[in-house]
Amino acid sequence: MNHNYIKPNPWSIIEEGFDAERVKSSESLMSLGNGAMGQRANFEETYTGKTFQGSYVAGVYYPDKTRVGWWKNGYPEYFAKVLNAPNWIGINVNINGEALDLAKCNKVEHFRRELNMKEGWLSRSFTATLQNFVEIKVEVKRFLSLEMDELGAIEYKITPINNAAQIDFMPYLDNGITNEDTNWDDKFWDVLSVDHEGEQAFITSRTMKTHFYVCTAMQTQVSMNGSKIASEKTVNATNDKIEFTYKNEVSKGDSITMTKFGGYTVDRNHDKNDLVSVAKNTLQKACDLGFEALLQQQKQAWAKIWDMSDISIEGDVAAQQGIRFNIFHLNQTYSGKDARLNIGPKGFTGEKYGGSTYWDTEAYCIPFYMATKDHEVARNLLTYRYNHLEKAIENAEKLGFSNGAALYPMVTMNGEESHNEWEITFEEIHRNGAIAFAIFNYFRYTGDFSYIPEKGLEVLIAIARFWQQRATCSSQKNQYMILGVTGPNEYENNVNNNFYTNYIAKWCINYTLEMITKVKEGFSEDFARIKGKTKITDNELDLWKKVADDMYFPFSEAHNIYLQQDGFLDKELITVADLPKSQRPINQKWSWDRILRSPYIKQADTLQGFYFFEDHFSTEELERHFDFYEPFTVHESSLSPCVHSIQAAKLNRMEQAYEFYLRTSRLDLDDYNKEVEEGLHITSMAGTWMSVVEGFGGMRVKNDVLSFEPKIPKGWDSYAFKINFRNQILKIDVAQNGTSFKLEGDSDLTIMVNGKLVEISPNELVTV
Amino acid sequence: MNHNYIKPNPWSIIEEGFDAERVKSSESLMSLGNGAMGQRANFEETYTGKTFQGSYVAGVYYPDKTRVGWWKNGYPEYFAKVLNAPNWIGINVNINGEALDLAKCNKVEHFRRELNMKEGWLSRSFTATLQNFVEIKVEVKRFLSLEMDELGAIEYKITPINNAAQIDFMPYLDNGITNEDTNWDDKFWDVLSVDHEGEQAFITSRTMKTHFYVCTAMQTQVSMNGSKIASEKTVNATNDKIEFTYKNEVSKGDSITMTKFGGYTVDRNHDKNDLVSVAKNTLQKACDLGFEALLQQQKQAWAKIWDMSDISIEGDVAAQQGIRFNIFHLNQTYSGKDARLNIGPKGFTGEKYGGSTYWDTEAYCIPFYMATKDHEVARNLLTYRYNHLEKAIENAEKLGFSNGAALYPMVTMNGEESHNEWEITFEEIHRNGAIAFAIFNYFRYTGDFSYIPEKGLEVLIAIARFWQQRATCSSQKNQYMILGVTGPNEYENNVNNNFYTNYIAKWCINYTLEMITKVKEGFSEDFARIKGKTKITDNELDLWKKVADDMYFPFSEAHNIYLQQDGFLDKELITVADLPKSQRPINQKWSWDRILRSPYIKQADTLQGFYFFEDHFSTEELERHFDFYEPFTVHESSLSPCVHSIQAAKLNRMEQAYEFYLRTSRLDLDDYNKEVEEGLHITSMAGTWMSVVEGFGGMRVKNDVLSFEPKIPKGWDSYAFKINFRNQILKIDVAQNGTSFKLEGDSDLTIMVNGKLVEISPNELVTV
Which residues constitute the catalytic centre (chains A, B) (predicted)? Predict the structure, then answer.
């Protein structure tokens, strides 16, 4: 662990004391987002210390020209990446002519920040003595509105302590921003206009190449001791920045406050010619309501979210804080309202991984959104891939596939592949499987079959086609093999017969065949449309079936386990426990070839297959595989501990399960991987949720029956969560002395608890 | 084949007719070099058409900052690359004020270029009608002197045909040059001074970072109808260029000639403060001798080279031209005088592959230089690696090896790795084997054991240590394996147990153990020094022996062959013959993953092992392996056909051997790979030589006996070559009716011909 400066608190992330070395970490941890926009916890005023400035608008990206050492056929020309958006939060402050800058003050005391997750706001307060010896108290609060998702609000209050002072607020909009993570130091934005009217200002700009239009806007207001005052301002506009200056004499002990509303309007939601007028209206509406009323709305909106998605834990504040931190950021990142958006691995907290969509969404995020939101949200995530089907087919064509076979991109913004490392881009093809699995999982959990005839089956067919074409027949074994792949464990490249990949490929084909039959039988109109569009024939389906039936799986008779890939047992099988600590993390200590020839597993791979297809294996089989693979797993991916936590819980190894749980839930808070400065691991946060609900809670759905096998880690008094199962809300409360269930709904629900059927009526409290 | 515009001619490369589309190809084909400097066949005068300007100074390189998409631990920060050197050949020409530019003339006729390989010069002649309707005849000849290797000479003659004309010659030196192939568009040169004195000019400059000092110099002279004239000049100097202007009125039918001497002096050979004075003296000496006398020297120098290294072929002019083209360029690239230099894959003909040293030198080039030069030349090539031993040990340390294990770089200029593709940089480790093999090969061929105790054994020990540490023990097979490698066939990456790699690793260890014993027994003083330095112990040697003894080799009982690597037979084994032509070359048509999972072989891999260690296998074994692997080989590396040609000849498949011979010998002349514009494949040219001498001639050395099994391709009347075997020169003349041998030496030599011992006395002609 890198640091543990965050105070334990069930509902807040609190930092006390100013430490310049922590600024970038806190900027990540305390990021705000509302699904439509995001903002790292950068200071409003000038800060000349180390900082990573980040403002993001959902869905606004730029195709950065690919940079590689050695070009390979099939690489994309561009890498779509999230863009640093114009800064709307900036408020420069001058105190008697000296810029307030925490990096340059004589003294900073009582520094405290709180990210209040319950209510969805960030506050900061401190007293500072400037170089000119003026002492001031500063109190700042800001939030990004959930209700009005084009809006953020800031209240910035200053009280001179030791003397009267001239306090100048210089709120601004700045489009002169760059990305930290760019390949060619390109400029990404064209500014089209810089305007102001009254206390409002607007910068309209357009991203280069992608031509997204964005209006960045602000409206400002000055108050003295809580009452609005008319403060004269001067305006300073350049070709990419506009700044208002309000100068005020403030007596010792009086408080002056700058209230700033700001945000973005984008042409994804409005006609590009209306962006300024929409922003104008939004700002005026916010101003009319006022900061406090908006904050009340914010609290209510978050209360509603928490009511459904909270997991409460009694008796372990670190665990409690961890899970809420995860749930909070997931909700900040993706609201599910817009099928054009998705969940980037770093959400709105950093630029790395291009802010794009990975298989993380299907493999880790969908269960969380499915259980804690209206099912439309998960459906939107599926639809996102349906809308990209054509591009996935084009992508496969570039790699030599035909006849409508689809390979979904490893990384994408708009459906086009934007990754460029052959061993991943071309070979980490298991991603196709997770996309099919999510369709199955959605139907299994929600019971909503309609998605499959409407959209899902077309995706499944294209994926099944890919697997059939990608498998090759080994004449010496007379079985189908998938050669040259990278599995979920990216510490193996270009291996043959990765168990997980082969297994999910076979499953995809069989599931698609099954769904074809179901749609054919029950949805003849849809079937006719799909058959016309995809031109599937019985001959083709026979071919698929042959591949699925004769799929090869590497297996060790000696260990009675499936092998992660061909040749795994030829490695030097030294467990992680016998690896000196000085050698870890191996991705920082070892050269790539050494990692590759080692047995070390970056993230669950064979065990990921056992997670997805738990039903297909006995508990004894799971245990054997867990016992074999876990000792070689270094968990150097954020997506690894959650799966192991769930399986450890399933195997009744609660101490181990709890250890993995802490590792996943406090990964960023405790900065296990020493990289939190770059942003948070958003997608793995959904895995944290799974490790409580599916791990400790043992929640599963099988044959339309919801089941639980609740367990509780040592030291916890109880934990509780709610889920939306088939539009019925069930509250589960697991305590040392039993588990209680309460149903919010209008009809009875039969669930299975520890293997026994339990009938629950609405509002009845059933304890088992 | 892309084009075949080069006229068949036994001694010259002749192009007739001007075609702007061929300019870049001809610039490569007709490159000049003298071991110390090189020059693409760029025009002296302005040319605004497509051209690739290239002037090179041996050993002057620049560490270009590495560019990768995804950084891996262990990658080098820099990629050393050959630099485009200042231009010394430039002579701009104005005719009545209009610049002569073949891309802009009204008419270009009788265009003819000849690279005369016998005498080592390049000529160009044409008549041109300018836009101002002046018609001129131009005749240019140039060469890079072998005798004075800091000097080149140009004679540029113009005759106005239809009218008198004012003809201005503007010879210049230009340091304002860039590389075509740079990662960051950096500037590479700092110009320190631009001077002139009389008819001489000098630019002194220094490469950035590496700080090589180079003086680029010229001296000019004007003649009319063959007699020197005093022509007034003006001088125009900028901060990186200097140009003289000579204006002359020339009557119709008179000829005016600019003679320009120029070249480079470098601080590798002189004190950096003396570069200008050395250049001055060289130029003055050249001027005093005159162009014609220097040209006579050049012819004599080449005659001497050809006397030893020529291969003459009667009855097949294409084959004859091909082999001489190869031998000519090899001699232009590397003279063997300087152990600090080596042979870049493109020599002085282009920038690609960084002009650096690859394993090509040891695997392909050494036999040629060993047989056609003084043995000191091959010894210098070995010493080059000895001098880099310390850096090879550092390189291995970066990858986790210890105790003096060495991994020689994949690509280097100064001993440091400068490649950055993990599957090659870290995994194409077989290169270490070729470096050890070259030490063995040198001793086998020259009989000079002294290199081994003096230098070679230290290299061998460091390489053996690498192999022992790199091999890992498979507990399930209880044998040593080498996991995660790329063999010579780069169309497989990160495979396990590449036969070639495992075999050469085992051989390296055994050979090193053998040499340790020999040195210990015969060279006790050297042994004491080496033991002190390397600290080898009996325990360590036992460890090596265990690895060598228990090395695993993938073998197929069904096919009775060694497998290229684990799992090779699981591929879909469709032969190249069954691959549609439209799919080739696969490296241009297929994505990388498709290439990797295919069975196609880029260059001899298992067969490369059979080539090096032919003695270890029976002819039947060779035949089985050849029959198995050849049908999957696409020969998309220039280094592939030569090995297959030698083996086809050994197997008495003369048609196939001849086909491969043409492919290797005319690879660039006929532009098989459609890339000759970028430069020539210099290192594979040595393979061409091998395919005649070792392939058709069947030359081998075994147990100190030189042997031949001469064969002759259909259609050839005869072929002849000379070799230096243990400082005796033997001429071999293979004709349809028998092979004759003639010895230039002072003692008898016993050779073996077709399995029978033959005694040859000096100057006796023995026909078998």
Answer: 490 (proton donor)
Looking at residue A594, its amino acid is R
**Nearest CB partner across the interface for B494, out of A69, A70, A493:** A493
The SS3 of residue A6 is coil
Please judge whether B426 and A70 are an interchain contact, meaning their C-beta atoms are less than 8 angstroms apart: no
Question: What pLDDT is attached to residue A180?
Answer: 65
**CA B467, CA B445: separation in Å to the nearest integer?**
25
Chain B residues lying within 8 Å of A76, measured CB to CB: none
Percentage of residues in chain A having pLDDT higher than 70 = 98
Write out chain B residues lying below 8 Å of A421, CB-based.
69-70
Q: Which residue has the tokens 């930092």?
A: A15
**CA–CA gap between residue A508 and residue A300 (Å, rounded):** 43
* Joined tokens for residue B312: 């003459």
Q: CATH: 1.10.3720.10, 3.40.50.10420, 2.70.98.40, 3.40.50.2000. Which one for A31-307?
A: 2.70.98.40
Q: Are A732 and A723 in contact (CB under 8 A)?
A: yes
Q: Which residues of A touch B67 (CB under 8 A)?
A: 67-69
Q: What DSSP element (H or E) covers B221? A: strand B213-224
Q: How far apart are the first and last CA of chain B?
A: 39
CA dist B489 → B344, B603, B637 (Å): 20, 5, 9
Contact B544, B513 (CB under 8 A): yes
Hey, what amino acid is at B231? S
pLDDT at B746 (0 to 100)? 87
CB contact under 8 A, B421 and A473: no
Which stretch of DSSP H or E encloses residue A621?
helix A619-629
Alpha-carbon distance of B390 to B339, in angstroms, equals 16
Nearest to B572 among A66, A68, A472 (CB): A472
CA gap B437, B435 in Å, rounded: 5
Interface test with A, best of B422, B592, B595, B632 (most A CBs within 10 A): B592
| Domain boundaries, given as residue ranges, for chain B | 31-307
Binding-site positions of A for substrate: 359-360, 602-603
Q: Which residues pair with B426 in a beta bridge?
A: none
Give the up-direction half-sphere exposure of residue B537: CA atoms within 13 A in the CB hemisphere: 4
- Cα angle: A513, vertex A519, A525; to 5 degrees: 135
Question: What is the identity of the amino acid at A130?
Answer: L
Q: Where are the alpha helices (DSSP H) in B235-350?
A: 275-289, 291-309, 317-333
> What is the per-residue pLDDT for B745?
82
- Tell me which chain A residues have a C-beta less than 8 angstroms from the C-beta of B74: 591-593
Report the pLDDT value the prediction gives residue B355, as an integer from 0 to 100.
Answer: 66
Q: CA B505 to CA A522: how far, in whole Å?
A: 64
* Assigned token pair, B429: 């480790």
Average pLDDT over residues A682-710: 97
Q: What is the DSSP letter of A718?
A: E
Interface predicted TM-score (ipTM) of this complex, two decimals: 0.91
The span from the CA of B598 to the CA of B579, in Å, is 11
**How many other CB atoms are found less than 10 A from the CB of residue B575?**
12
The CATH class that applies to domain A698-768 reads mainly beta
pLDDT tens-place string over residues B60-83:
988 877 777 777 787 877 777 778
**Is 90 exceeded by the pLDDT of residue B438?**
yes
CB-CB neighbours of A433 under 10 Å:
28
Work out whether strand B705-708 and strand B749-753 pair parallel, antiparallel, or are unpaired: parallel
Is the Cβ pair A567, B496 closer than 8 Å?
A: yes
**Which run of H or E residues covers position B12?**
strand B12-16
What is the CB neighbour count within 10 angstroms for residue A630? 20
A553 at B interface, C-beta within 8 A = no
Structure tokens at A259: 């209230």
The answer to whether the CB of B583 falls within 8 A of the CB of A400 is no
Q: Which residues of A are catalytic?
A: 490
